[in-house]
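ok new one. same drill as before - structure tokens go in, u give me an amino acid for every spot. 281 of them this time. try not to just spam alanines like last time pls lmao
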């Protein structure tokens, strides 16, 4: 058995939708999977030379969590930048879960999301990479849930990726244990508005992506990211931190007067298919 897994990047939070809102992006890692004797892994692209090449590799761990225990040969072609807030870890996990399900003859189902989300403790990125489109994720006790929605065709994301890396663990450590009630109420309203904006009316994305819940607290980790976001928003361009940062996600055209030096600017489609598995034999 030999097949190719293609999995999209993702952006999460989208303003105030902390650990709840996600969207799949048209930037893809590919993993060629084959049944083999023992375990072999090659990695080209992002993470090459840095990630482990044994059972602790994230894709292998996800394959095992999905129930496949046999030999594997993996050829990973990584395009999603690591530690930039574009869901590289979630993409690897979802790819591994999809591979594990394929190897055990199972169709992807709600258990796939559960297995993937358990790795990270929240389901926003994983659900976006798994289902594509726009997702709302939540948990009910120890059970992770998500719903997928079709993005409005006018949603045109641009990502601004700095060379700086960022650790989700580190940036979460900057968040306070409590926030003012007014900020919590603001977040609830803006997260709800973001769902409407992304699926029906992008004209309200500027208001929908305004955040008081996490971005300002994390500014010490990536001040240039917050500077670019503030400059874009002052000129009417919806912009926010992508996931745990430091990537900026914006919607629409970028004004020439905004200094984006040091950022790799890419316009991406919204992926609507999610993870895909294609036979190679």
């Amino acid at each position: 058995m030999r097949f190719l897994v293609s999995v999209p990047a993702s952006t999460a939070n989208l303003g105030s939708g902390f650990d709840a809102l996600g969207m799949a992006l048209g930037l893809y890692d590919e993993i060629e999977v084959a049944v083999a004797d023992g375990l072999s892994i090659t990695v080209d692209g992002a993470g090459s030379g840095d990630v482990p090449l044994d059972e602790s590799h994230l894709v292998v761990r996800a394959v095992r969590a999905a129930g496949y225990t046999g030999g594997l040969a993996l050829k990973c072609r990584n395009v999603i930048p690591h530690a930039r807030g574009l869901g590289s870890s979630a993409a690897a996990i979802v790819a591994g879960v999809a591979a594990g399900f394929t190897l055990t003859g199972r169709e992807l189902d709600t258990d796939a999301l559960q297995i993937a989300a358990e790795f990270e403790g929240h389901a926003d990125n994983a659900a976006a990479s798994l289902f594509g489109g726009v997702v709302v994720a939540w948990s009910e006790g120890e059970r992770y849930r998500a719903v997928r929605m079709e993005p409005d065709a006018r949603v045109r994301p641009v990502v601004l990726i700095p060379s700086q890396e960022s650790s989700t663990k580190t940036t979460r450590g900057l968040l306070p244990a409590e926030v003012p009630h007014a900020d919590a109420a603001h977040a609830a309203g803006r997260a709800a508005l973001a769902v409407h904006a992304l699926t029906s009316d992008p004209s309200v994305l500027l208001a929908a992506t305004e955040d008081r819940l996490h971005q300002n607290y994390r500014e010490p980790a990536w001040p240039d990211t917050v500077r670019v976001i503030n400059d874009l928003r002052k000129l009417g361009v919806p912009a926010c931190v992508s996931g745990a940062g430091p990537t900026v996600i914006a919607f629409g055209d970028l004004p020439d007067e905004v200094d984006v030096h040091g950022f790799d600017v890419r316009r991406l489609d919204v992926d609507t298919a999610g993870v895909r598995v294609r036979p190679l034999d």
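The chain has a mean pLDDT of 94. and btw The longest helix spans residues 181-199.
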